[in-house]
Structure formats: C-alpha cells, structure tokens
Amino acid sequence: IAILASLLLPVLSVAKRRAHDTVCAGNLRQFGFAGQMYWSDNEHRAFAYRGESVGGGDLFWFGWLERGGEGARRFDLAKGAMQQYLGGNGVETCPSLAYVDSRFKLKATGAAFGYGYNLHLAGGLAGPGERIDRLAKPSARVFLADAAQVNTFQSPASRDNPMLEEFYFVNDRERTAHFRHSQKAAAVFCDGHVGQVEFDAGSIDDRMPDQWVGRFPGGLLRDRMVEP
C-alpha cells in the first residue's frame, strides 16, 4: 500500500495542479469577456483603478473595500466595474492562491480578489484609463493577471515575519505579479486570450522567494497607442 501511495501522490499532485490551472484560466477568460463588454459600453475606455471614497471605504475596480484593520474589513464585489457582466459567478479567486497557508494574510474578512489589473492600462492610480481601440497590439497587452504582494509592514506581518497577501494591480515597478502556476502567472490579454507568462529575470521578491512574487517583462504591460 505504501508503495502504491508513493506512486499515486505525484500523479495526484500533477492532476490537482492542472485542475487549478484550468479553473484559473476559465476565471480570466470570463474577465476577458466582461472587459470587452465594459469597453464596448464605455466608449472603449479602460476603467479606473480606484474611484471615490464612500461608506467608510473605497471603490476599486474590483469592488468596495472597507478601511480598517487587516483581516477585518468588509468588502462588496457587487460594486466592481465589471460585475454586471459577470453575474456573480465566483470567478474572483484563483485556487492556486493559498488562502489557508499560515503565511497568508487576509486583507478583508475573507478571500476577496485574487487578480491584479494592469495599472498602466488604467492610467495609473487616478486614471483616466487608456482607449482600448487605440492600442497598437491588444494581443500583447496584459489586462488582468495573477497578483499578490509580500507584506512586511502591516500586523501580523513584519520584517521578521513576511506574509503573502492579495494585491490588486500589476505594473512594471512593483513586485506584485504572482507566478503561482509552476513559476508562471496566468494572464488575460486585451484581445481576450489567456496565457501563462514567465517572470522578468531577477525580479522575484527575495523576502519570500518560494512564493514566486515578482514582475512581468515591461513590454507586456505598456504599449504604444496608435494615436496620441
């Protein structure tokens, strides 16, 4: 029995990893469809990363997040920019993001959102977003991707106790892309296709190197627009 188990465990591990990859790709594919519908209804303009402050919290592209202590904030994904196109079908979290790991720190009262928005596409923290119909090559521009951050500055995390947490944007500066699928990150591009991307060499955060948090190659996040 022990020999049989030793033979089966690697097979089961691979099957589980592939299942996670499939679910994550499906999530991102639905976000790609939702993004296309949003852009079509909003003059092809990418939505802002962050909106107004309301009700003791802040509106972000993915929903409303209460201000307050880590792990105790309320959140409402129904207020996200694409929610009306998603229909509340539970695509917000990636199964490969280890929420139950002892080194994971929740931002809200539960798992809120596991993907990050291309901050360059959003026009920075304050916008306005870019015109999608003016991108030179939408198929080469990341829209959303696996994201996370190493936190050392908010309790219970510290410099001596770095912890992984959700993060909601990726750019070419911060190390917030999460290469959690066999050292690759899943991403949906502006043309709607989904793929896996390798990290930029030398970018992995050395505070938690086994978590594979780093940066994308910059060319996947920025692109020339056809018109100024």
Written overview of the protein:
The protein is of the alpha+beta class. It has one domain. Helix content is 19%, strand content 21%. It is built from 2 helices and 13 strands, in the order H-E-E-E-E-H-E-E-E-E-E-E-E-E-E. It has helices at residues 2-41, 83-86; strands spanning 50-54, 57-60, 63-66, 75-76, 115-118, 142-146, 149-151, 163-165, 169-170, 177-178, 184-189, 194-198, 213-214. The mean pLDDT is 92.
Distance between the termini: 67 Å
Mean pLDDT: 92
The low-confidence runs, each spanning 5 or more residues with pLDDT under 50, are: none
Q: Using the CA coordinates, give the radius of gyration.
A: 18 Å
Shape: globular
Beta-strand residue percentage: 15-25%
Helix-residue proportion: 10-25%
Name the features:
single chain, four-stranded antiparallel sheet, 228 residues, alpha+beta, five-stranded mixed sheet
Question: Topology of this structure?
Answer:
Elements: H1 2-41, E1 50-54, E2 57-60, E3 63-66, E4 75-76, H2 83-86, E5 115-118, E6 142-146, E7 149-151, E8 163-165, E9 169-170, E10 177-178, E11 184-189, E12 194-198, E13 213-214
Summarize the structure.
This protein has 228 residues and is of the alpha+beta class. 19% of the residues lie in helices and 21% in strands. The longest helix has 40 residues, at 2-41.
